[in-house]
Specification:
Order of helices and strands of chain A: HHEHEHEHEHHHH
Strand order of the largest sheet of chain B: 6-7-8-3-9-10
Structural class of chain B: alpha/beta
Structural class of chain A: alpha+beta
Number of strands of chain A: 4
Number of domains of chain A: 2
Oligomer: heterodimer
Low-confidence stretches of chain B: none
Radius of gyration of chain B: 17 Å
Mean pLDDT of chain B: 88
Number of helices of chain A: 9
Strand content of chain B: 25-35%
Low-confidence stretches of chain A: none
Strand order of the largest sheet of chain A: 2-3-1-4
Largest sheet of chain A: 4 strands, antiparallel
Distance between the termini of chain B: 26 Å
Distance between the termini of chain A: 30 Å
Order of helices and strands of chain B: EEEHEEHEHHHEHEHEE
Radius of gyration of chain A: 31 Å
C-alpha cells in the first residue's frame, strides 16, 4: 500500500507506534462488542415487534357456570371478526405452564378462579381493536381484550434505543480512534521535525512527506484493529450460547451472516487512520516554516 | 540563474542583510566570506529558497521566489545541491541511503540508479563506509557524504556552508578538489567559509570570485585574499 520507499525515510521506532497499535486494537475490540450489541438488540426489537404485533389475548372472567358459554361466544365472535386469523382457548395445561414460573409445577389450577385466556392471531392487516372491544362488551360481558400495545411499545422502544446506542457507540469509537491517531500522528510529526527539515532540504514535496507518515499510521491502525477484531471475535464466541432462560443476555452475539460484519472493522479503522493522519500531516507541514 | 536584487533580510527586529545584489552565473565559482554571524548562512538560505527576503527580489532560475509555492521550492531544490555545516543526515539510514535520499524523494528507481550511486560513493572515497550509519562517520567522511548527497541529482549548482569547518587541512584540500572538479564539470559553486587559507588554495586551482559580508552588506573582496 502506498510508497514503501517513502516509509523508509521516517525513523521506524517510537512510542507512537505502540500507542497507535494499542489504541486501534482496543477500539476494534470494543467495536466488535458495540456491533454485537447493535445487531442483537436489532434482532430483539424485530422479534418482539413481529411476534407481539401479530398476537392478542382475550381474558374472560365469569362465574364458574358461565365461563364455558362465554368462551364459546367469544371464540365465535372472534372467528367472525375481520382481521383475525385464528383464535383458540388455552387449555388447563397451557394455563398452568404460564403460571408455573410464579407458583411452581403443582398448582391446583382446577380449584382456582382463574380467568380463561384466548390467544388471538391476527392477519397481516390486523383487526380494529376498538370495534372488537365494543362487540365483546356487548356480547361477552366478562371478556377483556388485551392487544399488548400497552407493554409491547415500551419493550420495542427499549430495544430500538439499545440498537441506537450500539450504533452511537460505534460512531464514538470511530471518533475516539480518529482523535487518538491524530494525536499520535501530531506527536510523530513534531518528534520528526528534523527529519522533515532534511527531506525538504533535498527536495521532498510535502505530499511525499505526508504520504510517508500516512502509510505508516494506516498500516499500524490496520494491524492493531485486526488484532483487536480477532480478540473480539474470540470473546463473543466464548459467550454462552442463546437460550430461552437467559433471555437477551445470552443472545448477545452474532448470528448467521452477521459474523461477517466485524471483518469490516479493521478496514474502517485503516480508513479513519488514513483520513486522520493525512489531515494532521497536511496541517502540520503547512504550519512548519 | 540565481539573482538577488537589493535584498534585505530582517529577523527578530534586527536587519541581518541590507541592499544585497548578486548574480550567480552558470559555471561560476564563488567564495562567500565574513566573520561569524555576518549573515553567510542567511545569504545561502536566501539563494535556495529556505528564507524569503524582507525587501528586494530573489529569482531562482528566472522565477521570483515569492511567487513559488512549497512544491515549486521543492522542485527548485532538486536543481541546487546544498551542503550544510552540520550535514543533516537521517541517522536511521545508512550512508548509502542518505546519499540516495534526493533520488528517493524525487521518485527515482534506486535499482536503475544503483550504478551511479556506487560510482559517486566511490568518487567521494566512501565505498568502504557505504553501509555505516552517519553517527559512525568522522567529520571529513560526513562532509564528503553530504557533498555526495548534494550532487547525486546532478544539480546545476552546489551551495556549501562551511564544508571544511570540522575537518583538518588535508581533508579540506580533498573536499576543495572535489568541488573544483565539479566546477570543471560546469556546476556553479558557492562556498561560505571564513577559512582564508582555503580560499587562497582554491584561487590557485580555479578562477574564483570572493564575496565578503560586512556591516550587513555584500562586498567584492580585493586581491589581498
Amino acid at each position: 500500500m502506498g510508497d514503501a520507499q517513502a516509509d523508509r525515510v521516517v525513523p521506524p521506532t517510537g512510542f507512537t507506534a505502540q500507542l497507535t497499535l494499542f489504541s486501534a486494537a482496543a477500539m476494534a475490540f470494543l467495536a466488535v462488542f458495540a456491533l454485537a450489541l447493535s445487531l442483537a438488540t436489532g434482532r430483539l426489537a424485530d422479534r418482539w415487534g413481529d411476534e407481539l404485533a401479530r398476537s392478542s389475548t382475550v381474558r374472560i372472567s365469569a362465574p364458574e357456570g358461565q365461563l364455558a358459554a362465554q368462551t364459546d361466544a367469544a371464540l365465535k365472535l372472534l372467528n367472525s371478526t375481520r382481521g383475525v386469523a385464528s383464535a383458540r382457548a388455552l387449555d388447563k395445561d397451557q394455563q398452568r405452564a404460564l403460571l408455573e414460573p410464579w407458583f411452581g409445577p403443582d398448582l391446583p389450577i382446577e380449584t382456582l378462579p382463574i380467568p380463561q385466556l384466548i390467544e388471538v392471531i391476527e392477519e397481516d392487516e390486523g383487526f380494529d381493536p376498538q370495534g372488537l372491544r365494543l362487540r365483546l362488551s356487548a356480547e361477552v360481558p366478562g371478556a377483556v381484550l388485551d392487544d399488548h400495545t400497552r407493554w409491547r411499545r415500551p419493550l420495542a422502544d427499549a430495544a430500538g434505543r439499545l440498537r441506537l446506542l450500539g450504533w452511537l457507540s460505534l460512531l464514538l469509537i470511530g471518533g475516539a480512534t480518529a482523535a487518538m491517531i491524530t494525536l499520535a500522528a501530531n506527536a510523530a510529526l513534531a518528534a520528526n521535525a528534523q527529519v522533515i527539515s532534511v527531506l525538504r532540504l533535498v527536495g521532498a514535496r510535502d505530499g511525499y512527506i505526508a504520504r510517508a507518515f500516512v502509510r505508516r499510521f494506516t498500516l499500524r491502525a490496520l494491524t492493531g484493529a485486526a488484532v483487536g477484531m480477532v480478540l473480539g471475535y474470540a470473546a463473543i464466541f466464548l459467550l454462552p450460547s442463546a437460550q430461552a432462560e437467559g433471555g437477551f443476555l445470552t443472545g448477545l452475539g452474532f448470528q448467521g451472516w452477521h459474523w461477517i460484519w466485524p471483518l469490516l472493522i479493521p478496514l474502517l479503522a485503516a480508513t479513519v487512520a488514513f483520513a486522520a493522519t493525512r489531515a494532521a500531516a497536511i496541517k502540520t507541514l503547512k504550519d512548519m516554516p | 540563474m540565481i539573482e538577488l536584487e537589493n535584498v534585505a533580510y530582517s529577523y527578530g527586529g534586527g536587519e541581518l542583510l541590507s541592499d544585497v545584489s548578486l548574480q550567480l552565473q552558470p559555471g561560476s565559482f564563488h567564495f562567500l566570506t565574513g566573520p561569524s554571524g555576518a549573515g553567510k548562512t542567511t545569504l545561502l538560505k536566501l539563494c535556495y529558497g529556505a528564507l524569503l527576503p524582507t525587501a528586494g527580489d530573489v529569482r531562482l532560475f528566472g522565477t521570483d521566489v515569492r511567487g513559488m509555492d512549497r512544491d515549486d521550492i521543492a522542485m527548485t531544490r532538486r536543481r541546487i545541491g546544498v551542503v550544510h555545516q552540520d550535514c543533516q543526515f537521517l541517522d536511521h539510514l545508512s550512508v548509502s541511503d542518505n546519499i540516495a535520499l534526493p533520488l528517493m524523494v524525487s521518485g527515482r528507481d534506486l535499482l536503475t540508479e544503483g550504478a551511479n550511486l556506487k560510482e559517486l560513493t566511490n568518487w567521494v572515497g566512501l565505498k568502504a563506509r557505504a553501509e555505516a550509519r552517519p553517527p559512525e562517520l568522522s567529520g571529513g567522511e560526513r562532509q564528503r557524504a553530504a557533498l555526495a548527497r548534494a550532487i547525486i541529482m546532478s544539480p546545476d549548482m552546489v551551495l556549501a556552508d562551511e564544508p571544511t569547518g570540522n575537518v583538518d587541512w588535508d581533508m579540506s584540500q580533498r573536499l576543495l578538489r572535489l568541488l573544483v572538479e565539479l566546477n570543471r564539470m560546469g556546476k556553479t559553486i558557492m562556498i561560505a567559509t571564513h577559512d582564508l587559507a582555503l580560499i587562497r588554495a582554491a584561487k590557485a586551482q580555479v578562477q574564483a570570485r570572493v564575496l565578503r559580508i560586512s556591516n550587513r552588506r555584500l562586498h567584492f573582496a580585493g586581491a589581498d585574499l
